[in-house]
Design a protein that fits this description.
The protein is about 75% helix and about 0% strand. It is mainly alpha-helical. The two termini are about 15 Å apart.
Length: about 220
């Protein structure tokens, strides 16, 4: 026999939904700011070697530091959201949400560490970029590895989103999920074809946690 979660758990889930949507929205804004700063592009992926990346960042560090500081805040919001949503009563026997939220937590933890390494270590590496480029290369290598690992783990939120869409009384409508799925497939196809950059695909991917977070906040009755 199923038992309803207590009110504290439900309130935590709603607050987790708010943080989930807020964190993803902040990161989307940061991605667009990166495009405005010239670090990223919507039409083609910008490939820079370590020296070119270091030179660009050192010349635009004031702006990039602000952008990545905001992105760090966004990932902290997602980190806390994962902790709160981890406590929800399992709604799937085959693939418990707690396991997925644990992976999502680890992904955002890697993101937080990546931005922390970048913000804390890049300025010192810039000062010796010409004489000791290997220092920036080493620091950037750690930051990029953590970022890529975090990005892969963060895709786990897709599983929860589509589970909610295709279960009875889920917090996400099936129509909405099908539209999002269509957008993901379309942008992925354009990315593979070389018509769009990975930046656009990343923006579309962040719609998933935003919509899932809104669903947790609005559909409290579906958690009962």
């Amino acid at each position: 026999m199923k038992t309803a979660p207590d009110r504290t758990t439900t309130r935590e889930a709603r607050f987790g939904g708010v943080l989930l949507a807020l964190g993803a929205l902040v990161i989307m804004v940061c991605i667009l700011q990166e495009v405005g700063a010239g670090w990223a592009s919507l039409t083609a992926d910008l490939v820079r070697n370590n020296f070119e990346a270091g030179t660009f960042l050192s010349e635009h560090w004031g702006r990039m530091q602000s952008i990545w500081g905001s992105a760090l805040f966004g990932n902290v919001c997602l980190l806390v959201a994962a902790l709160l949503l981890f406590k929800l009563r399992p709604r799937s026997r085959r693939l418990p949400e707690s396991l997925i939220w644990a992976v999502y937590f680890l992904g955002n933890l890697c993101m937080v560490l990546s931005f922390s390494v970048s913000l804390g270590s890049y300025p010192g590496a810039f000062s010796v970029l010409g004489e000791q480029p290997y220092l920036f290369e080493a620091v950037r290598g750690i930051a990029v590895y953590l970022f890529q690992l975090g990005m892969v783990c963060s895709l786990s939120v897709f599983v929860v989103y589509f589970q909610e869409a295709f279960r009875t009384r889920g917090v996400v409508s099936r129509r909405q999920a099908l539209i999002v799925l269509g957008l993901l497939v379309a942008t992925l196809g354009l990315l593979i074809g070389g018509w769009l950059s990975f930046t656009v695909f990343a923006l579309v991917c962040h719609l998933v946690p935003i919509l899932l977070g809104v669903g947790y906040f609005r559909h409290e009755d579906s958690l009962l």
